[in-house]
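CO-FOLDING WORKSHEET

Operator: S.A.
Ligand of interest: nicotinamide-adenine-dinucleotide
Run index: 369
Mode: holo prediction, single chain
Checklist:
[x] sequence pasted
[x] SMILES validated
[ ] output reviewed
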Amino acid sequence: MRIGVPKEIKNHEYRVGLTPASVAELVAAGHEVLVETKAGTGIDFADEAYTRVGATIAPDAAAVFAGSDMIVKVKEPQAQEIALLESRHTLFTYLHLAADKPQTEGLIRSGATCIAYETVTSNSGALPLLKPMSEVAGRMSIQVGAHYLEKEQGGRGELLGGVPGVAPCKVAILGGGVAGINAAQMAVGQRADVTIYDINNERLAELDMHFGSQIKTAYASKAAIAEAVSRSQLVIGAVLVPGAAAPKLVTRDMLKTMMRGSVLVDIAIDQGGCFETSHATTHDDPVYEVDNVIHYCVANMPGAVARTSAFALNNATLPFVLKIANLGAGAAMRADKHLANGLNVSAGKVRHQAVAEALDLPFEAWAAV
Ligand SMILES: NC(=O)c1ccc[n+]([C@@H]2O[C@H](COP(=O)([O-])OP(=O)(O)OC[C@H]3O[C@@H](n4cnc5c(N)ncnc54)[C@H](O)[C@@H]3O)[C@@H](O)[C@H]2O)c1
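OUTPUT RECEIVED:
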């Protein structure tokens, strides 16, 4: 199959759909890979790194789309990319269509087979192509939280782990899923005083087994959260209710009880945020203050560590890219129901029920025959 990798054109997006190592795997399997010039230069993958493993460099996105059967990207296609999509193409990338009707209508018009990373599933019912980005965001949340606790950044002037003779900061992590456990690992590594709050008792038991005495766990009742917020220097929001907006666990009133210069990191901001006072920010201007509490609410945290994120994403996507390339999209989806769950749009129809319902568009199931 001919596989195309355009340069990402969204503002501040430096990740790339395929790393040179992934290209090498595809070439070894007998496929042709066409990479747009400078697609990876932002994260130090020069064009030569791609040609060395057998890719061909294309001068622009139009040449990539014209010369490829499958397009592998990171972010949802922008209007000028949708204009290049044809019915013969398979598009494999993050789409997040449920909140984006213009994009969905563009993909419908293109006739292309559009498979979204975020709806591909696994045997355990998890979303394996979202997981790496939650891992990155979870780990980053402690790093940014520690940074903004510094005095010069407007914070309390406290070191997360304290020093001998000075107590460490209290870190409250709301939600003990993928992002939450990764945040906890980093916070424990920095010797902070960590408590994870969740409403899933089985999950709390797993976390208790995993961390032993290194952390505390607590059921996320309103009272427990109110107390946590009033005592913690750093609060991480990492909850997820699949398919729904994040619950507002920390209210404006609770904020007033927080210590001056403490920090909230709302990882769940991409689902609306779990603090009442959260609004989405960008890497250009990541924080703001409400009631002397610093809020960090960047909706695409992994973009800040684009090189790590590109490797992590490729680790998860490559097996599926190979399957599609080896079998073709139709046969690959017939062979793998989890990949088929990634199908959002094909042949001008919306194939994902939740997307169709969210956008009030007709749904027509893809027939795996
Ligand atoms: N900002 C970013 O850049 C970025 C990047 C990646 C992921 N995310 C977001 O991070 C969030 C967490 O993702 P994840 O992969 O860790 O999800 P996950 O499903 O692995 O974990 C979510 C956890 O939240 C818990 N939870 C649900 N409701 C709760 C409540 N009321 N109180 C306490 N806990 C509750 C669940 O039981 C679960 O353990 C999601 O909103 C995801 O979209 C953001």
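REVIEW:
Residues 133-134, 137, 174-180, 197-200, 203, 220, 238-241, 246-247, 249, 267-271, 299-302 surround nicotinamide-adenine-dinucleotide (CB under 6 Å).
The chain has a mean pLDDT of 96.
[x] output reviewed
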